[in-house]
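[audit] Reproducing an earlier prediction to check determinism. Same input, same settings, fresh worker. If the tokens differ from the archived copy the diff job will pick it up downstream; this log only records the rerun itself.
[audit] input (242 residues):
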Amino acid sequence: MPMPNSDHIKVKVWRGDAGGGSFAEFEVPQQPAQTVLDVVTWIQRHADSTLSYRFACRVGMCGSCAMMVNGIPRWTCRTHVNKVVQDNRLTVEPLRNLPVIKDLACDMSEFFDKWKRAEGQFSGTNTRAQAVAAISPAEPARRAANAAIECINCAICYAACDVVSWNPGYLGPAALNRAWSLQNDSRDRRHGERLRAISADGGCLSCHSQQGCASYCPNELNPTASIAGLKKMAASAFFRSR
């Protein structure tokens, strides 16, 4: 929606912590090519220096600036105001489904703990003394892994996931997407342990395939497809064990 002819934007920003909070409203000067992160930074520097938020690279590489913008999870450094403003207003909140530390900064511990539960760590078979294993890029498993490896842990998909909202034990799209990439890596030696982990309660079978993760991933990954692959692996393992 084009921005109305105004030299200021009205911005509602969530202020509070794990105990609760409320919105504060600010008027922010409109600037050419302005991003939502620019807006939040202006508020912190010129209107309220106590506002807490995260950012690092500012160019869409780290994912640390992810927030809810008008109810949608986005990288704020790459979200231009004129693309998302509604009636000259913005609402900025911390990511959904994660505990709030303060204001717009969330506690990511739970998110990364679920990576561990999903056996998201690579565990190779070769030692440092051995040559690096050669894998053809044309192999189907290698192509499947390639489709999932560009995740940068920004938690956009986790915030977009409705299953996480009502089932806090669900591992979530990012952890399961990582598990899929490793299950397709022939160098990894923990395929069995990982398959058991992602087949347990809160694993891939909890996914409802609503595609929220795929819809909002800034890197255009499709965790739903990765999770569907894990479901097939889990089902095959189940019937082989019968």
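[audit] rerun output stored. Observation attached for the diff report: The chain has two domains: 8-106, 110-240.
[audit] end
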